[in-house]
Amino acid sequence: MHRREFVAVAGGALTTGLAGCAGSTDPEAGSPTDGSGDGSTGTPQESSSGSGTDADGSYSVSMEPVGEVTFDEVPETWVANNGSWADMGVALGMEPPKGVWLTSRYHTQYYDDIDGVSVDASGMVDLYQDGVDKELFLELDADVHVIDPNFLMNRFKGWDQDDVDEISQGVAPFFGNSIFSTGYAWHEDYEYYGLYEAFGKLAEVFQRTDRYGAFASLHEEFQASLADVVPPEGERPAVAIMWADGDEPETFSPYLVGEGTSFKQWRDLGVRDALAETDVQDFHSNRGRIDYETLLEIDPDVLLFRGQEAKTGREFRDTVVSFMEDHDVASSLTAVRNGDVFRGGPLYQGPITNLVLTERAAGQVYGVEDELFDRNRVAGIVNGDV
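The line above is the sequence of ABC transporter substrate-binding protein; the predicted C-alpha cells follow.
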C-alpha cells in the first residue's frame, strides 16, 4: 500500500491548552482504570465540503479541525481515537483499526447479539500506554489516523503541533473530531459533528458511502419507531447519569444529558434528566463528585452508571447493585428499592452500538421488551448487502 499523500488546507482549528492528565481519576482521561445533530442522515456529499474524485483517482474529504485532506488512494489500515470511530469502520465493512486510545473502552461485546457481525480485538493495541509514544504510530504504520489531533494535544501532557505534523507528514494524515462530548474548552472554536454527520465523513474517507446510506435509512426508520415506545413527557421517570468506579462506589462523577454523541440514546428517548433539575454541576464544569447523601436529596427514579460496561448485567447486579442494597444510605434511594439501577452506557458509540444501546436503554427506563431494530439488516449492510 503506497503512503497516502494529503494536504490540510488553512482554516483548521488546531488548539492546545491545559486539560486533564491521563493518569488522573478523570473518567474521560486516558486512565486504564477502568452528542446535537445526531439525527442528521444526509448523504455524505451533503455533509462535507471539498469532497470529490479527481481524474487521477485522488479525492478529498474535509473535516474540522484538520480541514481538507486529499487521498491518492483509499486507506486500508487505520487507527481510531475510540470506539465511536471504530464502530463506524465496522459498520462500513472495514477491518478493525490497529489501535484505539484504550481497547478496554471499545466494547465489542455489543456485537454478540448480531449474527454476522463480530470484531476480533485481540491484536488491537492501546494508543495510550502511560502516555502516547510517537514510535507506536511509526510501528503501526497506518494509512490514516482517525483521531482529532486536538485530543492528542490536550487530553494529556506530551504532544504538541510539531509532533502532530511529524506523524502526519511521516506516516499518514489525521482525520477526526472529538464528537463524544461537548464539554471541552479546547473544542469550543471549531465544529462538533453529530454521529451520522461524522459517520458520513468517514464513509467518504473509505469510499463506502453506499453502506453509509443504508445505515442512514435504517437509522431514520429506527428513530421513527422510538415514537411508539416513548411515553408522554409527564410519565417519564427522572434519571441520573453518573460515572461510578469499581464494584463498591461511594462517590460519583455527575453528567447532565448533553449534546455529545455519548448521550445520543438518552436524548433520542427523551429522558427526564434529574440532575438538570438541581444545582449539581456537570462533571465537565468543575470535575466535581457527589455522594449518596446528595443523591438521596435528589432521589432520582432511575440510576444509570457509566464506567461499568465491562460487566455483564448480572455481574453489575451482583456487585454494584448488591453493594448499594446493603449500604446504609444507598439502600434508601428509590431507584435501589425499586430495582432501577442500571449500567449507563459507554462514553463512545457508533451507528451499530447506538442501535444496541438505545434498545437496551428503552428497556431500562421504559420497560420495552421488544427488539427495536432488524439484526439481519444490520449484518447485511456491514457485509455489503445494501
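Note on the example: Residues 209-226 form the longest helix (18 residues). The chain has 13 helices and 13 strands.
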